[in-house]
Design a protein that fits this description.
The complex is a heterodimer of chains A (about 450) and B (about 350). Chain A is α+β, with helices and mostly antiparallel strands and about 450 residues long. Chain A is built from eleven helices and 20 strands. Chain A has helices spanning about 65-80, 105-115, 125-135, 165-170, 185-195, 210-225, 330, 335-360, 365-380, 385-390, 410-420, and strands spanning about 10-15, 20, 25-35, 50-55, 85-90, 95-100, 145-150, 175-180, 200-205, 225-235, 240-250, 250-255, 260, 265-275, 280-285, 295-305, 310-315, 320-325, 395-400, 405. In chain A, strands 2, 10, 13, 14, 16, 17 and 18 form a seven-stranded mixed beta sheet that branches. A six-stranded mixed beta sheet of chain A has the order 6-5-4-7-8-9, sandwiched between helices. Chain A is globular and about 75 Å long. With about 350 residues, chain B is of the alpha+beta class. Chain B has one domain: 4-Layer Sandwich (Phosphatase 2c, domain 1). In chain B, about 25% of the residues lie in helices and about 25% in strands. Chain B has eight helices and 16 strands. The relative contact order of chain B is 0.15. The chains are: A alpha+beta (about 450), B alpha+beta (about 350).
Chain lengths: ~450, ~350
């Protein structure tokens, strides 16, 4: 018996795991796929605020700062007129260069005039720009708050003990994708900011690529429809979460990032979402083993967000992790394909990172072995983008066996880019839609 | 005079106007409507909503079918309804079955027979709306309350069509008063206000009165007769009757199985229950040798034409009673996939 379907859920959740544990089995891994509904109509789109946080230290002078001016102005053109746009500029101190305003023609005039006055000088202290941005975003608590952060240098002008507390304060205040321009910045420093703020760190090779990069980032910010989404993970007293990671689009360890509103609930901020956006999470569970045939609800995930002042908690039957114990080893030894896929992608990321480290310290034998393994894993999982990036640092003799030779004279850009993108995974194959069945 | 206590369980509440009458009343003191004892409804409600026993860990709090303390599966009372058979007298019998695909049986069946001056038979079949909360409970409660109300009506001098409408109204009000089954509901997405289909027959003196809401059906079969007595309150019938779509076009739509009317607050956007569901009632003769079949869509979708079901009924050996015949119909649907819950109830007129 069915009714006319009038109310599709704004998010769908589905868990992938092996539902049968062997006798005495006490741990399992599940992949949770969260997908926002395609249709804009399912939720009311929230207001969107986008800030550019621009490094204007001395090294930006010349082509870089000119390109930034151009890219920001072109970017405002791309924004819907109901988006709010602003620019924060920092060196060893920071200020609001273009105050946040709707992205209309007047905004563009204002921005053009103000950006003209942008003059690059001084040192680099990320915290100053982040802190000013946080102050601005505070005025928009119910909006989608995103920033685009750009630097070209090492974070060397910070007052001691200032960076960490400022970054901590920014967590949850806004989301931030970060870019390093050129190669004279540190991957770890920029990654730290991006990771803390639900964003991604990437490389822009030179001033000529700023505009295209910003355009893509603005389109991403403009596509968002709902802010401050949380992943709520409920476990019974017999089950404990030992690890939570985002596995796609990038690998991010979230195990210690969450809050515990109650002993049985772990909540993770998963930021803003666009219609149709999809992410995969890995959740490892330690459970009290049960008797053969017993059924245990080991995890019940839900997606929580606020709509018109009301909290909505979206659950799904197919997202629940329900396990049972069996003596049939053929059942309990099966590995879910989606779990296996991400195990492989993580192995790939590790091989790249440790391979690059080995090459850095001059251990060419280890580097050849590890990067060869990465080439093999990338080929096996069909991660063609990663294969392309790897081919900029190694010559591949045979991808299937992982036989490679280290390239000489590899550009710093190629190395940094590979390191930054090593955690970008290929999405697990989606099942074809289930056939509709009369009931 | 009523006893005065607002919720005196022995008081009689009028299903039409809501007025309370004393426990001894057979008719509403305000508008004369035939009454069902409130305590009967209360008792039936308790019967269908009883909580599962305590979990092994000692907790009695369940959500979505699992213990909220230790996560173990709640003892499943619902499995008791996976397959239920009833045969109160030799000429009357029925079966409700979970089928092969659904995790629960949300169909329900209630049969009754009494001799009041002459034999009286009552058949009720319901199908819970699966996206709604209390799906299993509302179907069971509606079937039981309608049966009780119809049997009660035969003790007075009330015309059967009115008795039928009152029985459907009583079932509706009982569902509206059902407590939310959050604790025991296994599927949290089943969160709409509850509702079910209902088809009922009151047979007395070779005369049958059929009432229905939704797409559960009644058929009459005889040696040269195979007749569908009901007309589904379905989206498909609505668009075909209005000429908007041809039957073939309508059958291809994703809405082709949707119903437009149900018993219970489901009908109303705000979950209120101020109005009774609009039921249809028909009368027909049920002569010696005639078979009356009530069933849910879990059966008739596998045999949409009346002659197909008639063929199945005629194939059965003469000695097969109504219970055996109902089993065969359920087996027939299960053998073809059993994609839905299946219910069949049969009266063989002697």
């Amino acid at each position: 018996m069915t009714l006319l379907d009038t109310d599709a859920p704004p998010f769908s959740l589905e868990a992938y795991y092996t539902p049968t544990l062997p006798e005495d089995g006490d741990h399992l891994t599940a992949i949770l796929t969260v997908e926002a509904a395609q249709s804009d109509l399912v939720v009311t789109r929230q207001d969107r605020v986008l800030l550019f946080i621009i490094d204007k230290s001395g090294s930006m002078q010349g082509a870089s700062i000119d390109a930034v001016r151009q890219a920001v102005l072109r970017g405002i053109d791309l924004c819907d007129e109901d988006m709010t746009i602003g620019v924060v500029a920092f060196d060893d101190s920071a200020s609001v260069l273009v105050r946040p305003q709707k992205a209309n023609a007047r905004c563009k005039q204002d921005a053009a005039r103000l950006l003209q006055m942008l003059y690059a000088s001084g040192g680099t202290a990320f915290s100053t720009g982040l802190d000013v941005a946080r102050g601005v975003f505070q005025q928009y608590p119910n909006s989608i708050r995103r920033a685009i952060f750009l630097t070209d240098g090492v974070n060397e002008s910070e007052r001691p003990g200032r960076f960490e507390p400022v970054l901590r304060n920014c967590v949850g205040a806004f989301e931030c994708d970060c870019w390093g321009l050129g190669t004279r910045w540190r991957v770890g420093e920029v990654q730290e900011v991006a990771r803390a703020l639900n964003g991604k760190a990437s490389l822009i090779p030179g001033p000529g690529e700023i505009e295209a990069t910003f355009s893509a980032a603005i389109q991403k910010a403009a596509s968002k429809a709902v802010a401050d989404v949380r992943l709520r993970l409920w476990t019974p007293q017999t089950s404990r979460i030992t690890l939570v990671k985002q596995m796609n689009p990038t690998i991010e360890d979230l195990t210690t990032a969450g809050s515990r509103p109650s002993p049985q609930v772990l909540e993770l901020g998963i930021g803003s979402w666009a219609p149709g956006e999809s992410r995969d999470y890995q959740i490892d569970l330690q459970v009290t083993s049960g008797s053969i045939g017993e059924e245990l609800l080991a995890l019940r995930p839900s997606v929580v967000f606020r709509q018109d002042g009301q909290e909505r908690d979206i659950r799904s039957l197919s997202a629940r992790v329900v396990v049972t114990w069996t003596t049939d080893e053929a059942l309990s030894s099966r590995i879910n394909p989606r779990v296996a896929h991400y195990t492989g992608q993580e192995e790939l990321a590790l091989a790249i990172q440790s391979g690059l480290q080995a090459r850095e310290r001059g251990d060419d034998e280890a580097a050849t072995h590890l990067l060869g393994k990465a080439v093999k894993l990338a080929a096996q999982s069909g991660n063609d983008e990663m294969t392309g990036r790897l081919q900029r640092v190694v010559d591949v003799d045979d991808a299937a066996t992982g036989t490679v030779r280290l390239k000489r004279g590899v550009s710093e850009t190629a190395t940094m880019d590979l390191e930054l993108e090593s955690t970008t995974t290929k999405r697990a194959a989606r099942r074809p839609a289930a056939p509709v069945e009369a009931s | 005079m009523p006893c005065g206590r607002a919720h005196c369980s022995d008081a009689m509440r009028c299903p039409s106007c809501g007025a309370i009458s004393p426990p001894t009343s057979r008719f509403c003191e305000r508008d004369g409507t035939r009454l069902v004892v409130e305590s009967t409804v209360a008792q039936l409600t308790t019967q269908v909503t009883r909580s599962p026993a305590a979990c092994g860990c000692g907790s009695t709090a369940f959500e979505e079918g699992f213990c909220i303390a230790c996560g173990r599966a709640a003892p499943r009372t619902s499995q008791a309804y996976d397959h239920v058979e009833q045969a109160p007298v030799a000429e009357l019998g029925g079966v409700t079955d979970r089928g092969k695909r659904h995790p629960w049986n949300e169909d329900a069946l209630s049969l009754g027979a009494e001799v009041i001056a002459e034999p009286v038979h009552v058949l009720v079949v319901c199908d819970g709306v699966s996206q709604a909360r209390n799906a299993q409970q509302s179907a069971q409660l509606a079937a039981e309350v309608a049966r009780a109300s119809l049997l009660e009506s035969t003790r007075g001098n009330i015309d059967p069509a009115t008795a039928m409408r009152q029985a459907i109204l009583a079932a509706h009000l009982a569902i509206c008063a059902l407590p939310d089954d959050t604790q025991t509901r296994v599927d949290p997405t089943k969160n709409q206000a509850p509702g079910c289909t209902l088809v009922a027959a009151l047979v007395r003196n070779r005369h049958a009165t059929i009432g229905w809401v939704g797409d559960s059906r009644a058929y009459r079969f005889g040696p040269d007769l195979s007749q569908l007595l009901t007309h589904d309150h379905s989206w498909l019938n609505a668009v075909v009757d209005s000429g908007e779509l041809t039957p073939a076009e309508a059958a291809a739509s994703p809405n082709c199985n949707a119903i437009l009317r149900a018993v219970g607050p489901l009908n109303y956007d705000d979950g209120s229950a101020s109005e009774a569901p609009s039921a249809d009632v028909v009368n027909c003769d049920l002569l010696s040798g005639h078979t009356l079949l009530l069933c849910t869509d879990g059966l008739w979708r596998y045999a949409p034409e009346p002659r197909e079901l008639a063929g199945l009924v005629r194939q059965a050996p003469v000695e097969a009673g109504p219970l055996e015949l109902s089993r065969r119909l359920v087996e027939y649907a299960n053998a073809r996939g059993g994609t839905d819950n299946i219910t069949a109830a049969i009266l063989r007129q002697t």
